[in-house]
Design a protein that fits this description.
Elements (H helix, E strand, L loop, with lengths): L3 E5 L3 H13 L5 E6 L3 E3 L4 H5 L9 E3 L9 E4 L2 E5 L4 E4 L2 E4 L2 E4 L4 E2 L7 H4 L1 E2 L3 H12 L3 E8 L9 H15 L3 E7 L11 H13 L3 E3 L4 E5 L4 E4 L4 E3 L2 E5 L2 E2 L30 E3 L18 H19 L11 E7 L5 E7 L7 E8 H17 L2
Parallel strand pairs: 1-2, 1-9, 2-5, 9-20, 11-18, 12-13, 12-18, 13-14
Antiparallel strand pairs: 3-4, 6-7, 7-8, 10-19, 15-16, 16-17, 21-22, 22-23
Helix pairs in contact: 1-7
Length: 381
């Protein structure tokens, strides 16, 4: 008997689920991927785009190409989910489902930090990064601040990588630019452990980048070019790059799949919500770890979770008992901006705290990331 599997979101997780199911299931099953964007954006390449090493065409692929993989692409905005009638409402009509995969990611709300939209260039937005690229071409002298608005935020390494990229860029251009990273957290990527955190701080300091932790921004004043913090302290900037406040997508704000964290609650191993046949993966979820902090919001976890969800849906459709579970393992490249990168990987489900191995930065890891980018945009399209 044919089934309809609806996947909400064409990011890393949604893309992998769609591909896996398109290959595994007979064509009489209907696999539908819904996304408001026409293209899949490979977010890890935004840093290269920022400094002119890529253009937007090189880091995107049309989601319509999934048709040849046995997947129907629905280019529409999701406006609601009726969990009782098992129907998704979109800007192009309703889509009923037998299985649902919520891979909508974390939404960004710049308006939640007064002044952000008027003052800051967003590091997580394609058009924002292109604006950064144009602006830094003529930024000859002054103070550049990379600001993290609030926690949690996706891709925990990104603000530190951005600062390192920009330091390398300005050094190459022989420009006298002061670079500072201001964050609410006490240490970079603290969940990975003190060894990783201290290594990142050392990298920043060795390149003359100022690291300012435990500073929660409450307001940005574009006229005076100042950031106001919870402590009463103020900090000036000449150019402000920021990560806006994150939150659950509005369509999920009042729904039965949310947990106390405010994010989608799932089984940490099976990725299923408390509703039968409804799964969630990636940044839209919050998985509590043994150390009472959530699993970081990173594409690598969405990728591996997607493998598990696709397997489990395929097994259930075929009347089999699913075996595969998500084990909390993952890793990511950490670019330095000078043609080198490090690599951190580990078991985030380990107790009493994650066990993470940090590889020394080298050109090898940088080229591994380059190859991964090429593989990703070839493999799934």
């Amino acid at each position: 008997m044919d089934r309809r599997i609806v996947i909400l979101g064409g990011g890393m997780g949604g893309l992998v689920v769609a591909n896996r199911l398109g290959k595994a299931l007979p064509r009489d099953n209907d696999i539908v991927l819904v996304d408001r964007e026409k293209n899949h954006l490979f977010n890890p390449s935004l840093l290269w785009l920022m400094v002119g090493d890529r253009n937007r065409e090189q880091i995107q692929k049309p989601l319509s190409q999934l048709q040849k993989k046995g997947v129907r692409f629905f280019n529409a905005e999701v406006s609601g989910i009726d969990f009782e009638s098992r129907t998704v409402a979109t800007s192009k009509g309703e889509v009923p489902f037998d299985y649902l995969v919520i891979a909508l990611g974390a939404s960004m709300f710049p308006e939640r930090l007064p002044g952000f939209s008027d003052a800051a260039y967003s590091l997580y937005d394609l058009s924002g990064v292109e604006r950064i690229r144009k602006t830094i071409e003529n930024f000859d002298k002054g103070r550049l601040v990379v600001l993290v608005s609030s926690i949690p935020f996706k891709c925990p390494a990104a603000p530190y990588e951005a600062a390192l990229f920009l330091r390398a860029y300005f050094t190459k251009k022989r420009r006298d630019i002061e670079v500072e990273v201001v964050v609410p957290e006490p240490l970079p990527m603290g969940i990975a452990g003190p060894e990783v955190s201290n290594a990142v701080v050392s990298l920043l300091e060795s390149r003359g980048i100022r690291f300012t932790p435990q500073h929660q921004a409450v307001k940005i004043e574009p006229e005076s070019k100042e950031i106001a913090f919870e402590s009463g302290e103020r900090r000036s900037y000449d150019l402000l790059l920021g990560i806006p406040p994150h939150g659950v997508p509005p369509i999920l704000e009042v729904s039965p799949v949310l947990g106390e964290s405010g994010w989608v609650k799932i089984n940490p191993r099976t990725l299923e919500t408390e509703l039968e046949g409804i799964y969630a993966i990636g940044d839209v979820t919050a998985i509590p770890l043994a150390m009472e902090k959530p699993l970081p919001k990173a594409g690598v976890f969405a990728h591996f979770q997607a493998d598990v969800v696709a397997h489990r849906i395929e097994a259930k459709i075929n009347g089999l008992s699913p075996k595969k579970e998500f084990d909390g393992r993952g890793g990511c490249f950490n670019e330095l901006g000078d043609g080198r990168a490090g690599y951190a990987s580990g078991d985030f489900y380990a107790e009493p705290r994650p066990v993470v191995d940090l590889k020394k930065p080298s050109r090898l890891w940088h080229w591994q990331k380059v190859l991964f980018e090429k593989w990703w945009l070839w493999r799934w399209f």
